[in-house]
Design the sequence.
């Protein structure tokens, strides 16, 4: 009977029926009270439902049954992370990584928790380890790029964003972030190199807009770069587009007016 309830929970979870899945996992846990696995899955589903205190209780039960279960510690870490308890989340993610050192997802989650605590170097190390273990995990590349950008290592960040685009060609954010890098690299250069960087930024923003036409930050950034490079009509067109979406923005009204002079 236990396998039927547990497998039903897995199917319901895969279909996004989290309430039903949680009920199935609870039934499975009742049938095999010394088995940590249904409690782990129950905790994971509760995290996905944002019921973090309940998830913590179920994950702690799983850890009590099997302290060497990496999944139990991972589920408990997720519950702590959901309540912004960064130190405890990091502690449990580290335990999960120690128990299963070849899991790239665990490393990514540990890196994300470090990043949420502003421990940038530790986060970068974990994202790199996640990539070593799971080279095609685009999220690790994305967050690695974001932190490299934060450390002003723009060339490294650009390589990370390029990898995201290769792995997920429809990711507009990767092009947007690459545009920011090029823009920041060229912002204070009044020479041919600076202009080349600005053009690269414009290209990346436009690629982001091709994937997500309503990506307002990309519209604004490329509009301002068009204005900077003397493409006033193109700038005005984009400013007008954003102004239609947010008509009561004084700064945007001013930018639009100046571009149309």
Sequence:
């Amino acid at each position: 009977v236990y396998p039927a309830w547990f497998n039903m929970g897995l199917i319901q979870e895969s279909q996004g029926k989290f309430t039903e899945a949680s009920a199935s996992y609870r039934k499975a846990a009742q049938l095999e009270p010394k088995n940590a696995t249904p409690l782990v899955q129950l905790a994971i589903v509760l995290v996905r439902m944002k019921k973090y205190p309940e998830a913590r209780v179920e994950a702690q039960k799983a850890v009590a049954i099997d302290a060497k279960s990496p999944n139990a510690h991972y589920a408990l870490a997720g519950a702590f992370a959901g309540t912004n308890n960064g130190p405890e989340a990091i502690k449990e993610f580290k335990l999960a990584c120690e128990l299963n050192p070849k899991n790239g997802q665990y490393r990514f989650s540990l890196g994300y928790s470090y990043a949420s605590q502003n421990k940038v170097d530790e986060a970068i190390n974990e994202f790199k380890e996640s990539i070593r273990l799971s080279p095609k995990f685009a999220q690790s590349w994305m967050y690695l790029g974001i932190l490299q950008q934060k450390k002003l290592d723009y060339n490294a960040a650009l390589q990370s964003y390029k990898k995201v685009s290769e792995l997920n060609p429809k990711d507009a954010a990767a092009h947007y972030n690459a545009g920011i890098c090029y823009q920041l690299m060229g912002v204070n250069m009044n020479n041919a190199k600076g202009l080349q960087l600005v053009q690269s930024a414009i290209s990346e923003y436009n690629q982001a807009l091709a994937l997500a036409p309503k990506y307002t930050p990309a519209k604004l950034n490329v509009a301002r770069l068009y204005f900077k490079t003397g493409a006033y009509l193109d700038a005005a067109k984009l400013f007008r587009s954003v102004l239609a979406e947010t008509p009561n923005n004084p700064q945007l009204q001013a930018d639009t007016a100046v571009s149309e002079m």
